[in-house]
Amino acid sequence: MLRYLNGGESHGKLLLAVIEGMPAGVPITEAEVNLDLSRRQKGYGRGGRMRIEQDRVEFVAGVRKGYTLGSPVGLQIENKDWKNWQEIMTAEPGEPATQRVVTKPRPGHADLVGAIKYAHTDIRNVLEKASARETAIRVAIGAVAKALLSQFGITVASHVREIGGVPAETGRMTVADIRAAAEESEVRCADAAAAEKMIARIREAKEKGDTLGGVFEVLVHNVPIGLGSYSQWDRRLNARLAFALMSIQAMKGVEIGMGFESARRFGSEVHDEIFYDEPGQAFYRKTNNAGGLEGGVTNGQPVVLRVAMKPIATLYSPLKSVDIKTKAPFEATVERSDICTVPAASVIGEAVVAFELAAAMTEKFGGDSLIEMKRNYDSYMDYVKNW
Ligand SMILES: Cc1cc2nc3c(=O)[nH]c(=O)nc-3n(C[C@H](O)[C@H](O)[C@H](O)COP(=O)(O)O)c2cc1C
Questions:
Q1: β-bridge mates for residue 4, sequence order
Q2: Exposure of 33 by Cβ count < 10 A (0-12 exposed, 13-18 middle, 19+ buried)?
Q3: Distances from the Cα of 123 to the Cα of 12, 103, 211, angstroms
Q4: Residue of 131, 216, 336, 346 with the most ligand 1 atoms within 8 Å of its CB, for mutation
Q5: DSSP helix/strand/coil, 308
Q6: Alpha-carbon distances of 312 from 53, 305, 345, 362, rounded to whole Å
Q7: Which residues contact 222 (CB under 8 A, 6 or more apart)?
Q8: Is residue 280's pLDDT more than 70?
Q9: pTM score of the predicted model
Q10: Mind listing the pLDDT tens digit for each residue in 246-264?
Q11: Residue 314 CB less than 6 A away from ligand 1
């Protein structure tokens, strides 16, 4: 079983994670993880923190000379701002912090529910872990998962479909073109004309002291048929992918394949008919409205997932709230916050999807080592081909 835990406060010393269940012998470097970390930090509409961070991962366990050992993989990312926060965030016993104490909960955040639930009088104890800073370590974990998937030719890509109601049109583009164009775009949008409109919309939001959300899409290719299972509710891969995507801060909905649109169509317009050519070609489809998943199991088609992100909750223009100590109303404002992070969210989406697929691959093909996993995979793919 592949699993991970992560920890670390937004202004703490570092973010950390332990991944358990990675097979031995998977080639992986800090440099390739750092590439994804820098992809997460880009995007028009980010606030000041991105300039402080410049995230770099360090492998502290489970990797030796560029290969996983089969033991737990330990990862960490230092917070570059730690020296400015050390006194406030220190683990050393002492008087409660008096600086940067937060008693004003921001609407749309975990602030109020977290303070009540964990009996905190300083909301900083909530926001430090609830913050999307956590997504940096999740991108690092996803990069390790991608290293395993790449051994089987599985690729995970993403692009932005919509920001603030401005849609992208990518209908006639190939996946390779979408991928390449998204990497070059400031908003990770493959439609250049739409990207310009999105940027204008973000600028407009910024001028108004407002924020924007949007929709991104994650595309996974070369997924073998048969990952996940219908045999038990929590083995359904569609459900696991939706869970993983919904666990990212600020996500409000997930669509698979045709998604919500399939609710508006006749069945004959939705379901992907089955064809068969000749042995070696096996079964195939002419459409992929299911988004690569039927019965909670991958069907060999690309996995297509779309995710809706709400607008950033911290606004420059004030939102009404109530101080938890004085119970006095106030208007919540901010000095530094992101305006729109849908482009970054798409990179985070790739990471969590990569992890779920890597977990499903290890479940299907087992293996203490990559060599063993490949042997099992090759034999299964032979079986599928001759079915
Ligand atoms: C990449 C990324 C960056 C974010 N940056 C901010 C930010 O600068 N300010 C903010 O208020 N929320 C930001 N958020 C969203 C909050 O973390 C999130 O809305 C909040 O933790 C509450 O969680 P929920 O929206 O899932 O209920 C960001 C989310 C992501 C994915």
A1: 19
A2: buried
A3: 15, 6, 23
A4: 131
A5: strand
A6: 19, 21, 12, 36
A7: 152, 153, 154, 155
A8: no
A9: 0.97
A10: 999 999 999 999 999 999 9
A11: yes
Q: How far is the CA of 311 from the centre of ligand 1 (A)?
A: 9
Assigned token pair, 360: 């499903």
Ligand 1: nearest atom to the Cα of 250:
25
The tens digit of pLDDT for each residue in 209-249 reads 999 999 999 999 999 999 999 999 999 999 999 999 999 99
Residue-level pLDDT at 51: 58
Q: Torsion-angle region of residue 266: left (phi > 0), alpha (psi -120 to 50) or beta?
A: beta
- The H or E element spanning position 67 is strand 67-68
Secondary structure (DSSP) of 214-278: EEEEEEEESPPTT-S-SSSGGG-HHHHHHHHHHTSTTEEEEEETTGGGGGGS-HHHHS--EEE-S
> In the numeric block, which tokens belong to residue 368?
């203490």
Ligand 1 atom index nearest CA of 344: 1
**Paired strand residues for 3:** 20
**Which parts of 151-191 fold into alpha helices (H)?**
175-184
Q: Token pair 């995970």 is at which residue? A: 156
CA of 60 to the centre of ligand 1 (A): 28
In the DSSP assignment, the letter for residue 132 is: G
Residue 299 predicted with pLDDT over 60: yes
Sketch out the chain's domains with CATH numbers: 3-385 (3.60.150.10)
The residues, ordered by sequence, that sit 6+ positions from 226 with a Cβ below 8 Å of its Cβ are 297, 298, 364, 380, 384
Q: Residue 250: CB within 6 Å of ligand 1? A: yes
Each residue's pLDDT tens digit, 127-150: 999 999 999 999 999 999 999 999
Whether the CB-CB separation of 283 and 250 falls below 8 Å is answered with: no
Supply the Cα-derived Rg of the chain in whole angstroms: 22
Q: Does the beta carbon of 211 lie inside 6 Å of ligand 1?
A: no
Q: Exposure pattern of 134-169 as b/e (b: 16+ CB <10 Å)?
A: bbbbbbbbbbbbbbbbbbbebbbbbbbbbbbebebe
